[in-house]
Structures are given as structure tokens and as C-alpha cells.
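Subject: for your reference before the review

Hello V.,

The reviewers asked for a structural picture of the protein, and I figured it would be easier to keep everything in one thread rather than splitting it across files. Below is the amino acid sequence we used in the manuscript, unchanged from the supplementary table.
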Amino acid sequence: MNTIYQNIKLSVSQSEKLLAILIDPDKFSIDRAKTFFEKVNASIATHIFVGGSIVEAHKTDILVKEIKTHTQLPIVLFPGDVSQISNEANALLFLSLLSGRNAEFLIGKHVEAISKLNKTNLEIISTGYILIESGQKTAVEKVTQTKPISRNDLQQIVHTAKAAEFLGMKLIYLEAGSGALIPISEEIITSVKAETKIPLIIGGGIKSILDLENAYHAGADLVVIGNAFENNESLFNELKK
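And here is what came back from the structure prediction:
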């Protein structure tokens, strides 16, 4: 049986584009789960990501259990903190915030998480997480007390992504941040994709089908959409299978 990561690699090798729906446990109401996931299941979505910068204790576990009753899509944790680890999910992005220099988010939180991860069956996927400036201060920046890389500093972005690959990370995640005013530019996506050989995830600021298509065309292997669905579920109508 292939792992989630192996399936992502297989999709990339076959030029298949992936879409993850990001759900923040602090923003999502369980009451709307049934109708929401009916739309998810009818869409081209391939993964469910669960996580947020700040989430109340136990909310992640409750939400993941609920999600599993409504969909067969793989559930991947996108944790902002150790408290968001749930054995109910299928996998976890083991994020290292390479755009910042706060040791807590480069290695500190990872060490703290091991005692919990050792008690789970989660597939752990090492991920180079790179925050790109997006027009306003995001929750990631506030929580981690780090600065994003300027969207104009293309060399620094590409070199950071390449460093992630050389460090042995399995995925690169370029993030504009929740509520970003500007998505990751096509130039950035194309440049990073040209210089790296591991799957590329793009998230933050994707608000329309055009944004999604632009990201795919530029080289994104997996695109993450969160706020757009929270604010406008009718977007699912444009993403039907």
C-alpha cells in the first residue's frame, strides 16, 4: 500500500495536479460539516489539510474525527503547534520554518513533538516551510515571531527551497499565509520548481479558479485553499469533478 507521500510523488510523475482543502479547527463549525463535505467530495479536491496558527486544545482531534465520517480523502495535519497532533489523521507535515531564524520553529517544536508522535501511527512527512511576504502581516508571522522573505528577493527564496532539498526534506511548501492579500507569484513558483526536484506545495491568497490555474501552470504540484472556501463555498461549484 502506497503512503500519502508516495502517492503525491506518483501524481507529480504523472503530471497530475493536487488540491488540498485547508480547514482551521478554530474557524470551522462542526454543524456545517455534512453539507460542506458533500461539496468537497463532489469536487476535484484530493487531500484535506487540518491546522491553524492558534487552535484550542483538543479541537483538532474532535474535528478530524468528524471529518472522517464524511469523506474518504486523506487527512493531513498542518500543525501550528504540538497541541494540534492527532492520531485520528493519516499524516502530518513535519514543518520546519526555513524562512525564519527562530530556533523553536526550526527544531525546538519538533523535539517537543516527538513524545506525542511516538504514540501515533501518523505518516510523518518532512516539509521545508517557507513564508513569503504577501502584503500584510499574517498569523504565521505573529505566532513565530519571524519575518517572511520578500517576494522580490527571488534568489533568497530559491536558495532557501534548494537548501530544504539538500537537507533531505520531502516537500517544499511556499506559503503566503492565511488571509494573504497577494498569492505566491508565478515567477516565484516557476523559479523554485526549476531548481528543485521534490514536490512543491503552494498556499495562501488563492481566492479564485484563475489563481489556482495560474499556480498549476507555473509549476505547483499541490495547491492549498482555505480562506476562500470559508468565505465563499460557492467556489466549489467551479471545482466539480
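For the response letter, the relevant points are probably these. The radius of gyration is 16 Å. Residues 17 and 221 are 5 Å apart (CA to CA).

Happy to draft the paragraph if you're swamped.

O.
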